[in-house]
């Protein structure tokens, strides 16, 4: 899994993730998200367009980051999840507690 900073969209910091988010890679994603939050990014979008698979470890990261951002009135948005990843979010119930957008322009 790779995590890359992308150009901001308005006030939103964007992290693009590729590959699998699983037990072996979830910590890398969590550290990248928390580093963005510590740097002052209270609006964080995680672009999942290149993510092919997400496990419960990845879901845990999304919730952990969301909770951390909410303590400072920040927000987390998941962008462009592929069909399989979206299905995992829906079946796990996470789609009802996480904001998911298909079009990054909706952030503005």
The SSE string, one letter per element, is EEHEHEHE
What is the CATH class designation?
Answer: Alpha Beta
The separation of the N and C termini measures 28 Å
**Gyration radius from CA atoms, angstroms:** 12 Å
Strand content: 35-45%
Provide the residue-averaged pLDDT: 96
What can be said about the biggest beta sheet? 5 strands, mixed
- What overall geometry do the principal axes of the alpha carbons give? globular
Number of domains: 1
- CATH homology superfamily: STAS domain
CATH architecture, by name, is 2-Layer Sandwich
Can you give keywords for this protein?
alpha/beta, single chain, globular, 108 residues, Transcription Regulator spoIIAA
Explain how this protein is built:
- The protein is of the alpha/beta class and 108 residues long.
- The chain has a single domain, classed as Transcription Regulator spoIIAA (2-Layer Sandwich).
- The chain contains 3 helices and 5 strands.
- The protein has helices spanning 26-38, 56-70, 83-92, and strands spanning 2-9, 12-21, 43-54, 75-79, 99-101.
- The protein has a 5-stranded mixed sheet.
- Strand 4 (75-79), helix 3 and strand 5 (99-101) form a beta-alpha-beta unit.
- Helix 1 packs parallel to helix 2 (56-70).
- The longest helix is centred in the middle third of the chain and has 15 residues, at 56-70.
- The protein is globular, with a radius of gyration of 12 Å.
- The N and C termini lie far apart (28 Å).
């Amino acid at each position: 899994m790779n995590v890359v900073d992308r150009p901001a969209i308005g006030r939103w910091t964007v992290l693009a993730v590729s590959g699998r988010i699983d037990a072996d890679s979830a910590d890398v994603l969590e550290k990248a998200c928390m580093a963005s939050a510590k740097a002052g990014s209270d609006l964080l979008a995680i672009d999942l367009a290149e993510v092919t698979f997400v496990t419960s470890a990845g879901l845990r990261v999304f919730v952990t980051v969301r909770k951390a951002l909410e303590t400072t009135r920040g927000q987390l948005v998941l962008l462009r999840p592929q069909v399989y990843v979206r299905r995992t979010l829906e079946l796990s119930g996470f789609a009802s507690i996480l904001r998911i957008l298909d079009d990054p322009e909706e952030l503005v």
